[in-house]
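Need tokens for this chain, all 182 residues.
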Amino acid sequence: MRVKKRAVWFLTLLSLAAVISVYYLMNPAQPFNGLKIFSDDTLKGTAVDDIAKLTGNDKTPVTAQSDLFEEMRMELLNERSQLKATLTQKIASEKYTAEEKNEAFNDMDVIVKKESNEAMLELLIKTLGYSDAFVRAENDQIRVTVQSAELSKSKADEIVYTVKKEVPTAGKIVVDFKSESF
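Here are the structure tokens for all 182 residues:
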């Protein structure tokens, strides 16, 4: 008797499915309690519990960062979202010519590239040791706002150098320092 490979695979998978279904019918799954993972009983003997005992602090205060940088990001996001919506409507509209639609598409592409460059620069500036950074590029000017305890010309020069290295076509670069305790 000659059996095709496809039939053998089918029977193997069918028998495997049958075995697994019988197993789960006989042993129903236990309900998952995600909060039990973080209970005090499960934390005993863990590295986190040991560190808390060594430092003497069972509770560490958590401070909230200022919302200034988030507000600036949200304002910029709202402006760009409105501009993108306008450009999308222009692209989808029948009133405009192909050249105007192409120009709107190119403008949208420029906005997306600008957003990605700003995000990349923010990450690079944060790696310089700043707790938060905000970058806004408009026309040929780039405005960088960083959260820092001290103002220094050398730190500003370091930021300008980083921006120039990543965006060689950048014109004027403005660096603003915001204190960490607004």
